[in-house]
């Protein structure tokens, strides 16, 4: 069943809202928060895939510049703008994840590091397996 333009706009708005929620939640990373964000990002991926499939079925190829499918043969500016907003929000979230990853890797490097490899990657001190827990 094909989505109508109003349904596509509503789905796009939901995706953008979910992405912004993930952005806010990862500001204070905790294991349970990150697990919930992972689930939410999975839901976003499913929504986006459903939208893509609907656009491919209902739309014509936009062929000229990107080869990406358009939403409908006539094109819908509101939907295109909303998809651009989603792309922009997703890019910001990607940068946020990269920054957090680099930050924590730096902390590990300070605590457990012995220098850098020839490829510029941090080299961590290998830990020895323990046969018992320290109390």
Précis, in short:
It contains three helices and two strands, in the order αααββ. With 135 residues, the protein is mainly α. The chain has a two-stranded antiparallel sheet with strand order 1-2.
Would you write up a description of this structure?
With 135 residues, this protein is mainly alpha-helical. The chain has one domain. The chain has helices spanning 5-25, 31-58, 77-112, and strands spanning 113-116, 122-124. Strands 1-2 form a two-stranded antiparallel sheet.
List keywords for this structure.
135 residues, mainly alpha, two-stranded antiparallel ribbon, 3 helices, 5% strand, elongated
Topology:
Elements: H1 5-25, H2 31-58, H3 77-112, E1 113-116, E2 122-124
Antiparallel strand pairs: 1-2
Helix pairs in contact: 1-2, 1-3
Order of helices and strands: HHHEE
Point out poorly predicted stretches: 60-65
Which strands sit side by side, in order, in the main sheet? 1-2
Radius of gyration: 21 Å
**End-to-end gap:** 61 Å
What is the tally of helical segments? 3
Structural class: mainly alpha
Give the overall form. elongated
Q: What percentage of amino acids are in beta strands?
A: 5-15%
Oligomer: single chain
């Amino acid at each position: 069943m094909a989505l109508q333009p109003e349904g596509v706009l509503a789905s796009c708005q939901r995706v953008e809202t979910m992405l912004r929620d993930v952005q806010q939640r990862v500001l204070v990373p905790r294991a349970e928060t990150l697990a919930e964000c992972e689930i939410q990002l999975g839901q976003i991926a499913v929504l986006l895939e459903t939208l893509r499939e609907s656009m491919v079925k209902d739309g014509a190829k936009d062929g000229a510049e990107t080869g990406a499918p358009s939403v409908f043969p006539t094109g819908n500016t509101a939907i295109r703008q909303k998809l651009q907003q989603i792309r922009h929000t997703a890019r910001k979230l990607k940068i946020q994840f990269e920054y957090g990853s680099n930050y924590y890797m730096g902390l590990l490097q300070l605590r457990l590091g012995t220098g850098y490899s020839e490829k510029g990657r941090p080299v961590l001190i290998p830990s020895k397996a323990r046969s018992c827990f320290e109390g």
